Amino acid sequence: MSKKKKExxxxxxxxxxxxxxxxxxxxxxxxxxxxxEGWKFISTDGYRYKFEKAEKEDWCYQLDYKENGIAEExxxxxxxxxxxxxVGQYDxxxxxxxxxxxxxxTDTTLFGNRESKLxxxxxxxxxxxxxxxxxxxxFPCFVNLLFFFHPFELVGPVFGTIFSIIALLTTxxxxxxxxxxxxxxxxxxxxxxxxxGTK
Amino acid sequence: MTDKLKRIYIPMxxxxxYILYCLQEENHGYNIGLQxxxxxxxxxxxxxxxxYGTLAKMEKDGLIxxxxxxxxxxxxxxxxxxxxxxxxxxxxxxRLYKNSKGEMIxxxxxx
Lengths: 199, 111
Hints:
heterodimer, A: 3-stranded antiparallel beta sheet, 5 helices, 19% strand, B: Arc Repressor Mutant, subunit A
């Protein structure tokens, strides 16, 4: 109920949108677009984006990937020194914005050259790998449970079936992120290739 | 110095070179950027992502060290190892420059 009420607040807009990790540039462009339409970005949970009503202004948004997942004080301060407002963080991604002033030349990117953008992509690839690592390690255990431990003989047909189903579901639960990961890494590597780097 | 560091840092990127060069005097990220912009007549503009990433990497590799944190800003200075890398790079650039002017290195002419 309370969620619905919030969405009905005319000053708050919640948009559902899914961006892959390789689409951080598209995500930034979309946030800039929303701000030009009069919706200022507040926060996201990776799927829902919360905006508040604001002036229709030209703000440039950028995303940075923090490998350690922490936006330290000195990190935020340096970006502020450069004129970037820190909006917030979701997961390892930090959101920044800067207003474009007419007639003035504004640096609208956090990553000026090809190399540093390449570095960013590689950081994302590495960071995502670390995240998937436990899955890779745990997965064989579930396979073992399914194939080498005979549940039917041990606890009878009813519990054996229940056990097998649970084991199967858990296995799927672990495999799924792995395939999502592979897909995202593929896209990122494509981006790296486009930037002219080798991985 | 390890060969691995040499492989990573030499030849240096332009931004890497300027950042290390400027840290012969204690400084923090944004100011380094300003200084580089000034000394290159605005030609080299180091973006914040590049600056933060380069400083973090150089600190991790021991080319620079954290002197102090003041008002949430980290001040760095070059280390001895950093100087070694910088000297190697400067020698490389000098060689490039001399060769580009038609000079030979070591003073001997080709026969």
